[in-house]
Amino acid sequence: MRRTWGMGGVGQVDSATGAASGWGARRPQDRIVHRPTTVGRPALVRIGGGRKGDAFGRGAGVAKPCGPGFVRGRGAAFVRERGGRRGSQAGFVPGRAVLVSILVAALLLAAGCRMSAGPGARGGPSGAAKPGRASGLSARSIPVVDPDSGDTLARLSELLDRADLRPGARRPDYGPLIEQVRAFIATRPQTFGIYFKDLQTGATWGINEREPIHAASTIKVPLVLYVNHQVAAGRARMDDRVVYEPDRDLVGGAGILQRDGFPGKSYSLRILTNLSITISDNVATNMLFRHFGKDNVGAFMRSLGGEVIFPEGRRISTARDMGRYVEAVLDFARRHPLLGGRMLDDMGHSIFHVGLPGLLPQKVFVAHKEGDIAGVADDVGIVFSDRPYVLAILSKGVDDIDRGFEDIARISKIVYDFQEKLGPVR
Questions:
Q1: Are residues 413 and 333 in the same domain?
Q2: Do the bridges between strand 78-82 and strand 42-48 make them parallel or antiparallel, or are there none, so unpaired?
Q3: How high is the pLDDT of residue 155?
Q4: Is residue 15 part of a domain?
Q5: Nearest one of 262, 258, 261 to 250, comparing CA atoms
Q6: CA 426 – CA 291 distance, rounded (Å)
Q7: Fewer beta carbons under 10 A from the terminal one: N or C of the chain?
């Protein structure tokens, strides 16, 4: 998306389609015609009843680039008319005012070109993008998003910065934390598999982290990540559609498609990936597995370092493997900010939000995925605290699912408090 500046206003132009929106974008009911002005140059006139999608405010001349993401046009005047009423005309201005107008226009265009570079863009004051990081999404590159809105994409750059590895940083002693967690789980009847990684130092530890446990709906994390990889590689598109086949896809449990899905109706990859994460829709998940192939997803999981992958066709995994897949989402977001940021956003806004984030302060962003079946309660994710970390907790032999997630929340709080005492790496 590019911002456009011109005498007609400010808009945004989609780099792929050329569609424009914003102040100065042509409205669906408008059309543009040329009208001679007193100085012999054509003026742009806005009259109701035109076509949607062109940038308004470019001037009557040919649009010229003035920097990355910006377009300028020659200073043709324009008249806006709606419903037969004549608007104001920014055409001929006599005498000294002409020079003043030209000077103001030049200053505005120069300011626009400076803004296009931005302090974090390539060639800007801060230099090139960080190694291993695609030129990212920020409040500057998505100007329609308020950086204080809480939107994940608006603060993605800050979240990724916080989770970056600090080379050479001293790894803390996690012995006391491990003992504290062991003391808690010793009081509980279920078997836990726990994997932890401090993202700023790379330090890891685990408790039964290689114990095979049913992954339940946490398996949807590597599945949806695989779909995003296919889209990023150009082998699929988010607007590709998959037809719902109840005889192959229908299953009970979480989701809405089992009730509201229509046989023979198609659904886009974007909605299927979103439903799989945010409401853990099992039908959407089955449709994705069928469309892309379970063996292909399994091979992808193995490429990420997974060790226990669909034994006997079952969705069995380990805390260590699930931690690897969650961290891979973060790595993907660094290389593909829009796709990866959107997946992190989906993981952070699931309707199931009681495990890892259950006892943490609301201000802490937790991108995670919960899952449960009879006797199993799992939650895996990234906690973006002041000292971010990956935490995967799988549990089996759970008598009460609600209590199982309460136990996960307690373990998560123990880990969070320890990390907060350490503070960020300086």
A1: yes
A2: parallel
A3: 87
A4: yes
A5: 258
A6: 46
A7: C
Residue 145 domain-assigned? no
Evaluate whether 387 touches 197 at the Cβ level (below 8 Å). Answer: no
In a domain, 149, yes or no: no
Least Cα distance to 47 among 57, 34, 36 occurs for 34
Which SS3 state, helix, strand or coil, does residue 222 take?
Answer: helix
My answer on whether 312 and 214 are in the same domain is yes
276: helix, coil or strand?
A: helix
Max CA-CA distance within the chain? 88
Provide the domain count of the chain.
Answer: 2
> Residue 312 is part of which domain span?
175-422
- The reply to whether 111 and 206 lie within a common domain is no
User: Is the distance from CB of 108 to CB of 6 less than 8 angstroms?
Assistant: no
What are the tens digits of pLDDT across the range 343-376?
999 999 999 999 999 999 999 999 999 999 999 9
Distance CA 293, CA 236 (A): 14
Distances (CA, A) of 172 to 141, 348, 381, 424, 425: 37, 28, 21, 11, 10
- Angle, alpha carbons 332-337-339 (nearest 5°): 75
For the segment 383-387, the average pLDDT, to the nearest whole number, is: 97
For tokens 């829709």, the residue is 281
pLDDT in tens, 262-305: 899 999 999 999 999 999 999 999 999 999 999 999 999 999 99
Q: What's the pTM?
A: 0.69
